[in-house]
Amino acid sequence: MKIHFITGNENKVEEAKKKIGPLGFEVIQKNLNPPEIQSDNLEDVALFSAKWVSERFSEPFFLEDAGFFVDSLNGFPGVYSAYVFETLGYMGILRLMDGIEERSARFAAVIAYHDGKQIKSFGGEVSGHITQEPRGSNGFGYDPIFIPEGESRTFAEMSAEEKGRVSHRGRALEKMQEWLKEKDTTDR
Amino acid sequence: MKIHFITGNENKVEEAKKKIGPLGFEVIQKNLNPPEIQSDNLEDVALFSAKWVSERFSEPFFLEDAGFFVDSLNGFPGVYSAYVFETLGYMGILRLMDGIEERSARFAAVIAYHDGKQIKSFGGEVSGHITQEPRGSNGFGYDPIFIPEGESRTFAEMSAEEKGRVSHRGRALEKMQEWLKEKDTTDR
C-alpha cells in the first residue's frame, strides 16, 4: 500500500520507511508545506495541517507533529521544538539545564492520517531524561541529549530501527499501521 | 472613531489606549483568539489571523503580532516570544546569554488593520541591547531586560507613554494612525 508522508524532514521519512516499510507500506515523501498553527497541543497542530492538505491533495497521506518537552523548563521547547532547534540547538537546552538536577523529559508525536475521506489521529510518547553532554551522531534534533527510559544510550547512539522500537514517532506509526491493517480486514 | 483591538493581552490594550487614545481613537479590546500560524515572519502571522477574524467580525479592527529577536541567539525567541516567555521567562533569556558579550536585540511588531473591506499592515521596530540583570517593574514580557538605543533605562523603567514613544508597538500604532487620518481626509 502506497502512503504519502507530508513533510520536509527527510530524517522523519527515513524513520517511517524503516518502521512501516517492512510491514508492506511504501512511504512516499511529499513536501507540501502546510501551515502549522501556534498551539500548545500537538494534535490541534497536526489536525489543522491535515485539514489544509486534505483540501488540496486527494490521495491517502499522513503528517506528523512532534515535540520535546522538558519538565523543569515548563514543557519548553514543546511544540516549537523545530524552531528552537534551528535557533539554539540542543546546546541551548543543555545551557538552560545547567545546574538543574531534575532532568526528566519526554518526546511526543501525533500523526494525522487522511484516507481520502476522514482524518484519524494517533499519538506516541516516550519518557526519559536529558544527558549532561551530547552523545552519538545518529538521528537528528535533540536525539544526542535524550536517553529513553530503561536505556543507557541516547537516541543518537541507536540505529534507526532501534530508535523506532521505542520512540514517540515509532509508537505513533505502529498505532497507525495496526489501525490500517484492521481497517483493511474489515473493508474486505 | 471606534476601533477594536483583537487581543487577549491587556497590557497591549493599555499601551494602544495611551498611544492613540489622545488622538481621537476609542480602542475597544475584543478577545476572539484567532489561530496564529507558525512562521518566522511576523507579517505572515498577523495577516493570516486578520483574514480569519475578518471572516467572522465585520467592524473595523486591528490585531498585532510582535517578537523579541536576540542577534547572538539567531533571532530566538522571535515570533514565539510569548510562548518562550510563558515557559522560560526573561530569566531564561539571561541564562542563555550568560557570558555572551554581543547583546544586541530588537523588538518588532506588525499590525494588521481591517476596515471591513481590506487588510493593511504596518510595521514598527526598535533596536537596543539586553541587560545583565532585570530592571524595573512596568510593562510586561521582556521589558525588564531590554534597553532601547539612545536610552539608559529598560522598557520596564519607563511609563507606558514613554515606552510608546520609542517602542515597536508605538511606532506601528503611529503608522496606522497616520494612515487612518489621511484616509479619513481623502474619503471626505
Commentary on this structure:
Two copies of one chain form a homodimer. With 188 residues, chain A is of the alpha/beta class. The first copy, chain A, has a single domain (2-187), classed as Alpha-Beta Complex (Maf protein). In chain A, 36% of the residues lie in helices and 26% in strands. In chain A, strands 1, 2, 3, 4, 5, 6 and 7 form a seven-stranded mixed β-sheet that branches. The radius of gyration of chain A is 17 Å and the shape is globular. The two termini of chain A are 15 Å apart. The model of chain A has no long low-confidence stretch (mean pLDDT 94). Chain A binds chain B through residues 35-40, 45, 48, 73-76, 78, 80, 83-84, 86-88, 92, 95-96, 98, and chain B through 35-40, 45, 48, 73-78, 80, 83-84, 86-88, 92, 95-96, 98.
Brief digest:
The structure is a homodimer of 188-residue chains. The first copy, chain A, has 188 residues and is of the alpha/beta class.
What is the secondary structure topology, with strand pairs?
The structure is a homodimer of 188-residue chains.
Chain A: E1 2-6, H1 10-20, E2 26-30, H2 42-54, E3 61-70, E4 77-78, H3 81-96, E5 104-114, E6 119-130, E7 146-148, H4 160-166, H5 168-187
Parallel strand pairs in A: 1-2, 1-3
Antiparallel strand pairs in A: 3-4, 3-5, 5-6, 6-7
Helix pairs in contact in A: 1-4, 1-5, 4-5
